[in-house]
């Protein structure tokens, strides 16, 4: 077994604290990865605090993982020692259902093996995420990080990047398309960069104008405050596609009114609880309300290669592992520009509390 240092939530809403555990020895198709950096996704906070229900503890969060391969199983063909690799939100799936066979593993009918807060395919071993010193993953669920991209700033591509790339591609963001991104956070700022690189006209809808300069720098053509009622009048019927990244409950009806006829609002943010939608918001203008969850393995690799080609990474603030609880508070307060990334080297230092 591989002794692994990590930070875990021991139970819901507890501060994260040092946690030592074991990873399995590599099986034939496994890759052992020395993790270098891990992004902090708002989903980590939701799950560590059990805001969606059903969380399992102790929980080592983290699904924006990058590192270097240190060992491979005898049957591994895709990776070798020294490769720069990434792991995203899931580490296995059934591999046989219609969606797995189409490269849509995230929608596996048997359920994905979440990178953390779930069970391995044996149904009993808790999966543990990337706030840890190593991870062991089947080669079919490991991604290659392009050489051109710095590892630290590439980490958030593994969740924030793919979560925005997939719907942008699926709903055909590109030249001539007006795309709005609601919420300029970890997901949202990747959406701005990616939609801009795809050639779309990009608008940010943020709570205030505080982040306006950043939004423009990241590639937005327009920036509006949603706290200003005029915004909803001015932009009524404007967008082909809206991607809603907001992690809190909000009035989706008001945003559906900003779509053109046949426009689509794709929800990727996952607030607690239900959000009411009126039929009129959809029937007027033949509008669609859709959802999207991360992306499949092949598409995630395609996204990483796209980012390699366009030089796209996340804007990050690097922290030590013992700053993780403070970082969670700042994520909840929308006070992050635009993704916290944990330097996992800090797990090894005395300050990490082992
Ligand atoms: P984040 O960094 O906290 O960004 C969320 C942004 O939403 C904030 O920066 C803020 O932007 C806006 N916002 C926050 N509270 C708001 C409120 N009360 N009203 C209006 N806007 C508000 O979070 P993230 O990591 O990007 O994640 C966003 C959501 O996506 C989370 O719910 C997460 O669980 C979910 N998620 C889903 C998937 C998926 O596959 N679908 C994948 C990853 C994450 P402004 O300051 O610009 O207003
Ligand atoms: Zn995530
Ligand atoms: Zn499947």
Bound chemical compounds: NADP nicotinamide-adenine-dinucleotide phosphate, zinc ion
CATH class categorisation of the largest domain: Alpha Beta
Number of strands: 17
CATH topology of the largest domain: Quinone Oxidoreductase, Chain A, domain 1
Please count the helical segments. Answer: 11
Provide mean pLDDT, rounded.
97
Largest sheet: 7 strands, mixed
Structural features:
354 residues, alpha/beta, Quinone Oxidoreductase, Chain A, domain 1, Rossmann fold, 2 domains, seven-stranded mixed β-sheet, six-stranded parallel β-sheet, 11 helices, 17 strands, 24% helix, globular, binds NADP nicotinamide-adenine-dinucleotide phosphate, binds zinc ion
How would you describe this protein?
- The structure is a single chain.
- With 354 residues, the protein is α/β, with parallel strands linked by helices.
- The chain has 2 domains: 2-159 and 314-352, Alpha-Beta Complex (Quinone Oxidoreductase, Chain A, domain 1); 160-291, 3-Layer(aba) Sandwich (Rossmann fold).
- The chain has 11 helices and 17 strands.
- It has helices at residues 42-48, 98-101, 151-154, 160-170, 186-197, 212-218, 229-234, 252-256, 279-283, 297-310, 324-332; strands spanning 2-8, 17-23, 30-39, 65-72, 84-87, 90-92, 113-114, 134-138, 143-144, 178-182, 201-206, 222-225, 239-244, 259-267, 288-291, 316-319, 339-343.
- The strands form 4 sheets. Strands 3, 4, 5, 8, 9, 16 and 17 form a 7-stranded mixed beta sheet that branches. Strands 12-11-10-13-14-15 form a 6-stranded parallel beta sheet, with helices on one face.
- Helix 11 (324-332) links the parallel strand 16 and strand 17.
- Helix 4 crosses helix 10.
- The longest helix has 14 residues, at 297-310.
- It is globular.
- The chain starts with a strand and ends in an 11-residue tail after the last strand.
- Bound molecules: NADP nicotinamide-adenine-dinucleotide phosphate and zinc ion (2 copies).
- One zinc ion is lined by residues 93-94, 97, 99-100, 108-110.
